[in-house]
Amino acid sequence: MIFSRGMIEGIAxxxxxxxxxxxxxFSFAGDEAAPASLSGAPAKSVxxxxxxxxxxxxxxxRWLERQARGIANPLDTWSRAVIGAVAQEFGARMVSxxxxxxxxxxxWAMRAEGLKPSPLGILMxxxxxxxxxxxxxxxxxEEIFLPEPHQTIHLCDTCADKPCLKSCPVDAYSDQxxxxxxxxxxxxxxxxxxxxxxxxxxxNACPYGTDYRYAPEVQAFHMAAFARL
Length: 229
Prior knowledge:
The protein has nine helices and eight strands. With 229 residues, the protein is α+β, with helices and mostly antiparallel strands.
């Protein structure tokens, strides 16, 4: 298979019908340990798949309404089904951020899009802010020649006030990292209602990418998955 601009556009069009987008990609270096492609040979290139804002949400909700109640990890299941079908159509192997052993998705994303982590650990995007995600990746046996990502201003470097570190009632984010148990206990507790219904207060305090902020319904869904409520 020879990659062309038309083929990448075809992949993007197939993903767009589900509200998903291509998030860049790259070819692995010759001496780099790469995951297996569809044939089992080391992949030569990867295209990342994800979302900007909550565009996939209506597509996911329609799918979920047709599923049996109580399905485990429904968003991950939907993502695997949708991206897996695109992978099959274009001769790729689909992998997910939740696959075990874990693949270095965040490092791939930083390499593909030139992003850096925010103080919350989420990669800061110059347009989407913190309101984006990676849902999977397509591994190919062929090299894909893509332009290097543009160097962008890391918005967190220009943000003096850092409201994302001042809004959590239990100071879950600090220089020591993420206080998972403190966050989980608060979200599950009697004072965690604002977080349960409207999402992470620290994340919502970020002033960037607000046009892409997930609706409260979407944030509540993700928070419930985090807290297993």
